[in-house]
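note to self — DONT lose this again. spent like an hour looking for the file last time. sequence + predicted structure for the chain T wanted, 123 res
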Amino acid sequence: MKVFLAGATGVIGRRLVPQLLAAGHEVTGMTRSPARAAALEQQGARAAVADALDADSVRAAVVGAAPEAVIHQLTSIPARRAIVEPMSTQYSHLLSVAAFSSASTFSRSGTLSSLAVTSSSMP
């Protein structure tokens, strides 16, 4: 399965990537850092460098990966933006893009759900 993992280099994501790869999944991991992107690629995953608080950046990353499943493991916000843009902004950008991508499944912190989107609800 083609999996898009947001937060692939975070506390949970960096443990999840090798497990997904070992299970035979094709993984694209999203990270803010180009240096961490290189580490993902060394493990055998594709890397997408994107800022979770930038909707256009997230959209480009998810659309480029064309995943069947999107997993949300975003756990960090830079201190300079913590007050202005809450964690829910990351979640809403990712869920919104996942709903209009090729993904049929979205997972956040251990929950799994199917995405149901009608053409009339697309932006």
